[in-house]
Amino acid sequence: MGWASGGVIFDDVAHALIEAGAADELKRRTLGKLIDWLREEDWDTETESLEEFRDDSVIVALFRERGITMQCSDRTGPTNAGVCTRKLGHAGDHVDHQDFSWSQAVKP
Fold it and tell me: 58 and 77 in one domain?
């Protein structure tokens, strides 16, 4: 049986670090250790937290390094493109299920 409360703990700590303007290295050290500990405690809602922070490249990378991924699902391609089927945080162009590709938008 998993531990769903882990998401509340992770999300609260991650939001606090972001709101405080924590440097990427501090987020990496703190949240990396927290992810590892929560997983040891049988955290089973990791993907929900990943979804919550899908726009934070540091957090996405931390989950990805631990094998926790989800579909990118970018929908910014041309009209005839589907959703990106690559993993969230991927490098390079987006690609849909028909191998149609489009470049990633650069975020400010």
Answer: no
